[in-house]
Fold:
Amino acid sequence: MDKLPWKLKAGWATGAFGVAILMNGISALVLFYMTLVLKFDPAVAGAIIFISKIYDAVTDPFSGWLSDRSKSAKGRRRPFLFWGAIVSALSFLMVFTVPFEGPFDSALSGPGLVASSYVLLALLLYTTGYSMFNVPYMAMPAEMTQGYHERSSIHGYRVVVAAVGGFLVQSGGGAVLELLGKGREAYAWLAGIGATLIFFSMMTAYAATAKAPSLPQTETKLPFKEQVAGFLHNRSFQLILGVKLVQLIGIASSSGGLVFLLATVLGKPLTLLGVIGGAMIVAVFISTPLLLWVSRHIGKRGAYMLSAVVTGLTALSWVIATPDEPVWALALRGFATGIAFVGNVLFAMSMLTDAMEADTHATGLRREGMYSALYSFIEKLAASIGPLILGGALSYAGFDPSNPPKVADESVRQAVLVGVAYVPAAMAVLAVVILSFYRLDEGKLSEMRRVSAAPVSG
Structure:
């Protein structure tokens, strides 16, 4: 079944709303929360986030392995969506309701050790819930359709829904924090609202995919070494992972740094996050069909490269931002970010689905879950490296979370620009270079299908 009903695509995409709130809420706000509310040293906070992501090396492959081998009557993937929704919502609540107050003399002893252990536990629960839901969730499109451009279409629905979730985190979260004073009470409200939205959106995706096309586990068995070799020989998949790693490092570094940029460098209220996010949403609705059209004419790779260029140029524009920055300039950056977001997410996921199919033709195995797991691990690894870079830069610049400056000096400004401008721009250049080697287009995939379907003689 190549063409999917729009209701099924929209229903599946609903899960991306919860994923966006979960991932963007934590990646954009947790470093700010840990430093300015819990009073952790920025470098320590970045290190805690990074350490929690090492755990993904276990949770992501395990979730993929289990969902590939599931024989549930509800489909191989869907039961994981149900339990992942529960754990994800609980973890979001825990991360932003830490019952300890700083500043702490040390994160390795006394009250500091207790507080840092609690934060680490909450972040480990977050990575568990994210893996349980998102790894099987992202494997589903490979089973739902074999249409080359239909895969882009289904992810187009996901991009729009994810953008709305990201906008809600950025604008609504910023408004809540600004109105309630950016303290513990504000974050507690944010945690409760976010956890509720995460739970209901993920459960909606679970219910809406009850009749989604699903494929059974393959009977083909290969030794472990041959299975590993299949991953190593899937060059298209390796290139996609490389692109996403560098790109997401830039995004993670930028998303956490944006709050610091507005609050400490530009001296602007966090409610302006809504202006940036609103312009981004407008761009998403306008550019999603346009980029789908572009990809049909210049290919997924060409459209992806174009999006990476927009990402880099938008990031560099923050270098010239000043406290007198007009609102329209912030909105323009938000609009450009929306265009880049669509291309970066849409084509990466569509090309990932193509790589999953290529692996099936090469090995006879259906292991979409394992591919999704490796991809998810790269996502969260990058999400941990971003705060590590930003936290290290702020600490090196002498940023004091116990007494943050009302007006940042040049060293702090440059430290923030490392996160929101320099690193994202450099990563965008690397993404374009890596994409130049990608070759799995529609013609090559069609040929693999033909060869795979041909009867074996002799």
